[in-house]
Amino acid sequence: MESIRLAVNGRTDIGQVREENEDSIRWFAAPDHPFAYIVVADGMGGYSGGATASNIAADTLKKYLDGLLEHTFLSCSPDQQQLMLRAVLLDAINIANREILSAKGAHAQLSQMGTTLVVAVIWHDYLIVAHLGDSRAYLWNNYGMQRLTRDHSVVQEMIDSGQLTSEQAQESSVRNHITRALGVSEQVEPDINSWKLTENALLLLCSDGLTEYLDDHAIERVLATHRPALECVYRFIDDANRFGGRDNISAGILEFASQVETLTTDSESSITLRPQREDVTVRKEQR
Known about the structure:
Layout: E1 4-13, E2 23-29, E3 35-44, H1 49-66, H2 71-74, H3 78-106, E4 114-115, E5 117-123, E6 126-132, E7 136-141, E8 144-147, H4 154-160, H5 166-171, E9 177-178, E10 191-196, E11 201-206, H6 208-211, H7 216-225, H8 232-242, E12 249-258, E13 282-283
Helix pairs in contact: 1-3
InterPro entries: PP2C (IPR015655), PPM-type-like_dom_sf (IPR036457), PPM-type_phosphatase-like_dom (IPR001932)
Domain PPM-type phosphatase: 1-256
Protein name: Stp1/IreP family PP2C-type Ser/Thr phosphatase
């Protein structure tokens, strides 16, 4: 019989400089089913705008994910459930985008708002991650750490083309320019990828208020050594604030424990949705 335990924790913090927290985070683990998720959204658009956009995104994803575990879903085959989960994520992301655009049209003071989004869901041993922007998802297990998302940003494109190193990107004047976000255009193309989890693992979702200060090696050290694992969220917030805390900081940890042991990519059920248009460049507030 399958034996999977999921536990989740999250935290968001205003940081040391900002006057408002424009990040939003939601997390949940079902008590009766092996189902859990984390949603992190990093808003932009000035006072009240960023917070409004990120809350719309986070609340919309939460609403649709909370409604997933009903009779139709539970009675489906595992393959059908994976397809339904992907469809629910896409629908929720598109609905959140429309709601942000609608709020922008109705309130002039919100006209510049938008938000990044990263969401991860585990159902049994199936992990699915969707994202837009530079909020990230990482997975750590006994073999090390893997970054599950690639930033939709100008500096990431420059790194990919060889114009910048990762170290130079940290100091770049365009490091806060993102190329995909919610609330910017009527069409959104999140990247969606999925994996089969076959050994114990930790999943981290975070906003760039954390990754501005902690590189992948520093993040991996914390995930590998800090216990209890769910309390890593407090350590990450404290570290980012200690190093300057120029931005809001959000971190969510999802702990996957199974009796089975090895992380393999589920190539048959994995898909990345590629953009069919040129990405829009959005400039987030200077950190």
